[in-house]
């Protein structure tokens, strides 16, 4: 025999009244909490009042033109490139990335020795160009936005490097070196790679060159000849030196 089906029980008036009381109680409690939050905690979370400041017109940064006479018209060095003044020389470059706390890669880079430094106004400074850039370690941490830089502890110019004397000078003081992978610090410039060098009217081909910088390169008043102390070429493969009219027998 099948058991008779039980009919569902409908909520009584007492049950519905209890539910209504629960809803009203919960609503009253939440309203009280909201009012307390609004009157006590909310004022502490409001940001302080800040007076409006009227901003002045934007200033257009003008590139420094103190080195423009050293470079051809349209050269990137004459544009709005980054410039850092160090005790070793003026660094000009377009791109940079930090590789360690005090180490940076700068590219392309030009180093000007004898111009742009504090008080240095040499009319024929020595210039080092490296299109592939340089890896430079400074004596301490560098603030890229300051415009100045600590001394260069050591650096490596990457790829082909051109070292030359710029400005108006007589042929006897001409200097032009084509080489690669050049090291640099505050005392010397060196490379073990092959070099092709013109000094005055002489032409040299060899390798393993060191150029010692004079202490006057970092001070004012040093002439073009005072920037360089001496040059050492370990291996000389070719030397061409024109002689005066009449040669040796004049």
From TrEMBL:
UniProt keyword annotations, A-Z: Membrane, Transmembrane, Transmembrane helix
Protein name: Uncharacterized protein
Residues that span the membrane, as ranges: 20-38
């Amino acid at each position: 025999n099948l058991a008779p089906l039980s009919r569902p029980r409908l909520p009584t008036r007492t049950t519905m009244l209890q539910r209504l009381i629960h809803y009203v109680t919960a609503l009253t409690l939440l309203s009280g909490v909201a009012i307390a939050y609004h009157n006590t905690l909310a004022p502490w979370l409001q940001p302080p009042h800040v007076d409006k400041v009227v901003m002045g017109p934007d200033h257009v940064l003008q590139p420094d033109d103190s080195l423009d006479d050293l470079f051809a018209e349209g050269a990137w060095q004459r544009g709005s490139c980054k410039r850092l003044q160090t005790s070793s020389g003026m660094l000009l470059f377009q791109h940079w990335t930090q590789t360690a706390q005090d180490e940076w890669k700068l590219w392309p880079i030009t180093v000007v020795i004898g111009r742009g430094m504090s008080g240095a106004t040499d009319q024929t400074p020595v210039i080092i160009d490296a299109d592939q850039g340089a890896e430079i370690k400074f004596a301490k941490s560098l603030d890229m936005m300051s415009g100045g830089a600590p001394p260069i502890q050591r650096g490596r110019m990457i790829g082909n490097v051109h070292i030359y004397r710029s400005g108006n000078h007589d042929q006897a003081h001409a200097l032009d070196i084509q080489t690669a992978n050049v090291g640099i610090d505050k005392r010397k410039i060196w490379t073990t790679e092959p070099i092709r060098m013109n000094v005055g009217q002489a032409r040299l081909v060899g390798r393993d060159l060191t150029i010692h910088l004079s202490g006057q390169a970092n001070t004012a008043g040093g002439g073009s000849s005072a920037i360089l102390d001496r040059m050492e070429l370990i291996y000389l493969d070719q030397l061409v030196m024109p002689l005066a009219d009449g040669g040796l027998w004049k």
